[in-house]
Amino acid sequence: MIARRTFYYLMIALLITGLWMGCTGTTPPAVFYTLNPMERVSDPGPIDLPEKMAIGIGPVKFPDELDRPSIVSRTGRNRLEVNEFRRWGGSLEKNVTRVMEENLALLMKTDQVMARPWERYFQPDIRIALDIRQFDGRLGEYAFLNATWTIVDPDGDVPLLVRRTIIQETVAGEDYDAYVAAQSRALAELCREIATALSERLAN
After folding, report:
1. Whole-angstrom Cα distance, residue 93 to residue 108?
2. For residues 125 and 201, is the Cβ–Cβ distance under 8 A?
3. Which 3 state secondary structure label does DSSP give 106?
């Protein structure tokens, strides 16, 4: 009887200890990330824009699975991993458009690049609309960007050029720092393609 009672008390003590450890356990802190624009180089752009030409960016559309604070990666063809402790420092859409502003301004050698909603004083001469289908990848392997983009005449809202770009960038490490850096490089490559298309169109 005493042995049974001792066992009973021991089990209660272990249960209470387990509950106490669970309640006092520390949650790992969230780490926040941001995409980075291209580095400035001596000859970044294909050609110069005509004087005072302005470029507008937007709208930029994202799939629902990416429209969240947490960084998304893939663990399989049909499986996503949403890491609650690895997050974007703000809106992913705004982060992408801000980086595109800086990249295109550098590539096209102009300060007149602005994303929607732009200020009332800003009147773009040409607009870039994007539909980003995929912007994820595998940790330690690659970052993947699949986007359809359109050069639009802002006056008549007429598509002047429609293209699809698919980019895969190798991730140079196993952590999220390397993963986000590869996503930044993929976005820079997309901007290079857009800048080249703009340059070719303006040169004709």
Report:
1. 22
2. no
3. helix
| Dist. CA 183–CA 100, nearest whole Å | 13
The domain limits of the chain are: 28-203
SS3 188: helix
Please state the rounded mean pLDDT for residues 39-56: 67
Determine the straight-line distance between the first and last CA of the chain, rounded to whole angstroms: 98
| pTM given for the model | 0.82
CA–centroid distance for 33 within its chain? 10
The confidence band for 26, taking pLDDT boundaries of 50, 70 and 90, is low
Our CA dihedral for 103, 106, 108, 109, rounded to 10 degrees, sits at 160
Is residue 172 a contact partner of residue 178, using CB atoms and an 8 Å limit?
A: yes
Give the separation between CA 166 and CA 186, rounded to whole angstroms.
Answer: 9
* Peptide bond before residue 124 is cis, with ω within 30 degrees of 0: no
The amino acid that residue 153 corresponds to is D
Say yes or no: domain 28-203 is CATH 2.60.40.10.
no
Model confidence band, residue 200 (pLDDT cutoffs 50, 70, 90): confident
